[in-house]
Amino acid sequence: MKKTYVATMPDHVGAFLEASRRIGALGVNITRVSYNKAVDMHTLFIEAEGTPEQLEKADRTLREIGYLQGGEPEQSIVLLEFRLQDVPGGVTDILELIRSFDFNISYMSSQEDGSATQRFKMGLFVRDPHSLDAFLAQAERLCPVRVLDYNHAEKSYDNS
Length: 160
Prior knowledge:
By secondary structure, the chain is an alpha+beta fold. The protein has helices at 15-25, 52-64, 92-100, 132-142, and strands at residues 2-8, 29-35, 43-49, 76-85, 104-109, 117-126, 145-149. The strands form 2 sheets. Strands 5-6-4-7 form a 4-stranded antiparallel sheet, covered by helices on one side. A 3-stranded antiparallel sheet has the order 1-3-2, with helices on one face.
């Protein structure tokens, strides 16, 4: 089972090292990490994999060391692939849509491949998961969209 944590990283040297050691000691594998100090110097996204029991212990551990505040947050990350026209400004409409939904980009990757389109991958930090359906419907009107990874409450999205 996978789980994505949206954590508040404590501001001290070795903070992630401490979290990594504690999570690893529980047998939980960190499968992806996203941190960009320029975007938000305290927000860290950690995707971890383990049994439900191990992940529950990881929740408690991360709370104990100050990574998780309060109850279980609704916010999460969704990894999407947009098939955009390979033209100047081809990504602009999608970026404007992302901004209109107040999503934050945690990851981007794209490279032209000689075809007329680009496969533009983005990780979006979604604070309100209920708004994701509306976002996907509007994005699909702009270009083909594929959900690559979303594991909030085991909900599956299929835009094919």
